[in-house]
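User: I'm writing a short report section on ligand binding and want a predicted complex to refer to. Could you take this sequence and heme C and write out the structure as tokens? A short remark afterwards would be nice.
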Amino acid sequence: MRKKSLQLVSVTRVISVLLACMLLVTFSVSAGPAAKDQSKAVSKDVQDGKKVAFSRKKGNCLACHMMAGGEAPGNIAPPLIVMKSRFPDIKKLRAQIWDAVVRNPESSMPPFGRHRIISEKEIDQVTAYIWSL
Ligand code: HEC
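Assistant: Sure. The structure tokens for the complex follow:
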């Protein structure tokens, strides 16, 4: 009798360990793709933003700003580097790109949002890209 109950205890132990393992596997499988999707979405914005920023027909930021990987940049504006430390708040960076005149009424930077030079979505993408520099 005592032996049987001991056996029962060890069987329940094995089963609970197995269940715990299954739960762990299910969680990591279900969390995996979601987490990946999110980082994919972020890097997609950064990639698209780079295209908008470099394109002469869109942002053309290189006309005035030096940016990593950009050829023959202009130098009438500050280089776009270490942006996170200069703009800890990404909203302020977006606001600068949307309308530079707010920070500097004499700014020669085109007000990309106010003049609808690029779309709101493109501004989001450019902001994500610039913030990654
Ligand atoms: C015609 C020139 C010109 C173009 C094109 C231009 N900028 Fe600017 N930008 C400036 C100037 C000049 C400044 C310096 C601040 C001021 O005068 O407003 C500036 C400032 C900035 C700043 C603030 C930098 C800091 O350290 O304070 C950011 C960010 C910025 N520009 C992003 C962009 C992005 C992104 C684009 C492209 C979508 C772009 N700029 C296109 C001229 C330009």
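A remark for your report: The chain has one domain: 37-131. The two ends are 71 Å apart (CA to CA).
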